[in-house]
Automatic annotation (TrEMBL):
PANTHER family: CELL SURFACE PROTEIN, OUTER MEMBRANE PROTEIN ASSEMBLY FACTOR BAMB
InterPro entries for this protein: PQQ_rpt_dom (IPR002372), Quinoprotein_ADH-like_sf (IPR011047), WD40/YVTN_repeat-like_dom_sf (IPR015943)
UniProt source species: Pontiella desulfatans
Domain Pyrrolo-quinoline quinone repeat, chain residue ranges per copy: 171-425
Protein name: Pyrrolo-quinoline quinone repeat domain-containing protein
Length: 544
């Protein structure tokens, strides 16, 4: 094997992280610099040896940056394609001296606000984007890509976006250029899934991007791993066939969670949760529990110095059962379980847990409400409080400065995180101006005006960026909102389209927002819409 070394550059907050693997014939050992506690990805599958190519990567706790592969000699390569950002390496006697020619100001341009998985890099609905245009009437639609049938949100790393949709009898996993929407590669997976309630039959789960690989889970339970660079399919698992599962109410919905060397999936039906080797797809462990597959995505966190896996389970079962599981991600051992589920048969747990420190908030609809739990040093749950102040159907609330914000059905709620008390609850509405919607077949303005009482967002979805919230209503109304304990202020609004089932939260990345229109409306077919929220760096748009 021809030996190569990899230099990894990443950012987490304002810190610069550098990792230099030592290459042997069989393994790569990674030394971490800059105080990063993140795992960095294995490199073997990314590049052929001896090619100076840069690729984005993401760590398990939100680290993101570039992957540079190089032969063992002197060279100089650009970082992020910028002329003024480069890294010079000198290999002598297998000892690497690294000179990082980056100023703090330049580092700010290297760090990109990626969105590599469901709910973003931190799995919390927050983006580090800044300087975004507040007036939505001024933003432009950059491109629109066919959506197919899908509720899946796209995922972004660097200049690549992964979209997962159904077209006919196949689910298509596509990689697009974020700036142009141009397809870079695609792979198709046959499917026979049909939603039994006549909703869309396409994918629900969002892709996860990590270590130069893309992980997707289709509605029929087909788990795939592709290479980010060229779309090569690396492995596939057919979960329904292999584990003798059912599609239950709405198919497979939880997004894959990459934790360490594992891909975590909420299976349901007695198997409950499984871990697969992220490199090979081989089963690592299966953690059995009677609680079924929910529609909330699993999350991982560090508590009391150890990693824990939190799975909010509960889907189709009779009687309806479910709740929160605390699991050791290395072995699948269940530390504790806390029952939390609506007594209605036609209900599911769908809102992803919100984590802060050792505390977790989970919520269910249908008169259940929410509960705050604390994980004790022995990894058992302690109930802190129960509240009816917030009851989420499926939208995951966002924690900002000690307050939780989110939609409980069609009402926007602010809840005190420490006490569970409701600070306020409103039905946010806008005037007619916001309903200057697209004309038939265009993304311009129309004569549509809402009937009395319709000027709201329904069950909206929120993301937080630049000190405010971007809200997408379930019928295509987009708005910037200022949400504080003092109240809700709509800063600007715009209707991109008029279509129902707009249940996919917006995604933000490098000055752009990606909005999913899931159903036809106003003569416009379903599409993934890219809007520009701030000027894109000229050198990036020129491809330099």
């Amino acid at each position: 094997m021809e030996q190569t070394d990899q230099l990894l550059l990443g950012s987490l907050g304002n810190q610069l992280h550098i990792a230099v693997p030592k290459v042997t014939d069989k393994t790569r050992h990674v030394k971490r610099f800059g105080g990063s506690a993140n795992r960095v990805a294995e490199a073997d599958a990314l590049n052929p040896a001896g090619k100076n190519r840069a690729h984005p990567f993401a760590g398990t706790t939100g680290t993101h940056g570039l992957f540079i592969s190089h032969p063992m000699d002197d060279f100089k390569v650009p970082i992020l394609g910028k002329k003024d950002l480069s890294c010079s390496l000198n290999m002598q006697n297998n000892a690497m001296s690294i000179r990082i020619l980056i100023t703090l100001m330049a580092m700010a341009t290297v760090a990109q606000a990626d969105w590599p998985r469901f709910l973003g890099a931190g799995c919390d609905g927050k983006s580090s984007e800044a300087g975004l245009e507040t007036d939505l009437s001024k933003v432009e639609v950059a491109w629109v890509h066919p959506r197919g049938e899908s509720y899946s949100a796209p995922s972004i790393l660097g200049d690549r976006l992964i979209h997962h949709g159904r077209f006919g009898d196949v689910e298509r996993i596509e990689c697009l250029d974020t700036a142009t929407g141009k397809p870079l590669w695609a792979d198709e997976v046959p499917t026979t899934y049909r939603d039994r309630f006549n909703y869309l039959s396409g994918p629900r789960a969002s892709p996860s991007i990590e270590g130069g690989r893309v992980y997707t889970l289709g509605a029929q339970g087909i788990l795939c791993c592709h290479q980010l660079t060229d779309g090569k399919r690396l492995w596939r698992r057919k979960l329904i066939e292999e584990f003798k599962l059912d599609t239950e109410f709405f198919g497979f919905t939880p997004s894959p969670l990459i934790e360490g060397d594992s891909v975590i999936i909420n299976l349901g039906m007695g198997k409950c949760v499984a871990a697969f080797d992220k490199m090979t797809g081989k089963t690592q462990w299966v953690s059995g529990d009677q609680w079924g597959r929910s529609y909330a995505s699993p999350v991982a966190a560090t508590m009391h110095g150890q990693r824990v896996l939190l799975v909010f389970a509960g889907g189709e079962s009779n009687p309806p059962v479910g709740g929160l599981l605390c699991i050791d991600p290395s072995s699948g051992k269940i530390h504790d379980r806390f029952a939390w589920r609506s007594p209605r048969h036609a209900s599911v747990n769908a809102s992803t847990p919100v984590v802060d420190g050792n505390r977790i908030f989970i919520s269910s609809s249908y008169d259940v409400g929410g509960v705050m739990l604390e994980v004790l040093p022995d990894f058992t749950f302690k109930e802190v409080y129960r509240t009816k102040a917030y009851a989420s159907h499926w939208a995951t609330p966002i924690l900002v400065d000690g307050h939780l914000y989110g939609f409980a059905n069609n009402k926007l709620v602010c809840m005190d995180w420490k006490t569970g008390e409701r600070v306020w609850r409103v039905v946010p509405k806008v005037g007619d101006a916001a309903f200057e919607s697209p004309e038939t077949g265009t993304y311009g303005a129309s004569k549509y005006r809402p009937p009395p009482g319709e000027g709201g967002f329904g069950i909206g979805s929120l993301v937080h960026a630049d000190g405010r919230f971007l809200c997408l209503g379930e019928n295509g109304l987009l708005a910037w909102m200022k949400l504080t304990p003092e109240g809700c202020t709509i800063l600007s609004s715009r209707r991109l389209f008029k279509a129902d089932q707009t249940w996919t939260a917006p995604v933000l990345g490098d000055g752009r927002a990606y909005i999913c229109q899931n159903l036809p409306g106003n003569g416009i077919e379903p599409g993934l819409i890219c809007i520009v929220l701030k000027p894109i760096r000229q050198e990036q748009s020129d491809g330099k």
